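Lecture notes, unit on binding sites. The following record was shown on slide 14. It pairs a sequence with glycinamide ribonucleotide.
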Amino acid sequence: MKNAPLKAAVLISGTGSNLKALIDAIGRGQLNLDIVQVVSNRPEAAGLGHARAAAIPFSVIDHTDYPDRQAHDAAVADVLQRAGAELVVLAGYMRILGEEFANKFAGRMINLHPSLLPLYKGLDTYDRALDAGDTETGASIHFVTAGLDSGPVITQIRIPILQGDDAATLKARLGPLEHELLVATVRLFCERKIHCTDSVVSFDGKEIEQPLQLKPGGSF
Ligand code: GAR
């Protein structure tokens, strides 16, 4: 029997191209996912337009309206819980999360990050990979724990760094692949194939020792 659609909330801060990729994949029948809520911490986030266009409930919870991180996190958590989100997807949500928030959604909150974690947590990941003379870069999706871009890594995609690359060319090449990585990873959650217990990630019931690598064609 087919699983019920997985109920997800997507958190954004900006463009929302990854939110759009999820919406489009649902539209093509490629993802058994129900986006029950979109949250942005920035009122001007362009990505809110994607939620609006797809008639997905969305909330702006502006962090500058709250006295501290804990109060803002609590407001976001309240909206996610009311929406009945089973999976929380951080898709360009540029906020550090407090411990309480991370614990509340432990094992069911994932983040997309533009580096081969554990390398280059935080900002300017392309420039840092270039400055280090790396020969490849990529994107990672990990379970979220308290702290910046930390938690067990689930999946990755890699691209070579070519002669003459700069941050803009890397971003342009990696962007569409991030979309593929996010859709393929969320699909594993929809199929209930990924779990995390005590920081150990399992895929199809087996512990994974290395992050799953996305192959061309969209499989792991
Ligand atoms: C993506 O490149 C994602 O990897 C990055 O923000 C971008 C969001 O793009 N996330 C982080 O840097 C998290 N630390 P989008 O708004 O177009 O989806």
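Take-home: The helical segments are 17-27, 48-53, 69-83, 99-104, 125-131, 167-190.
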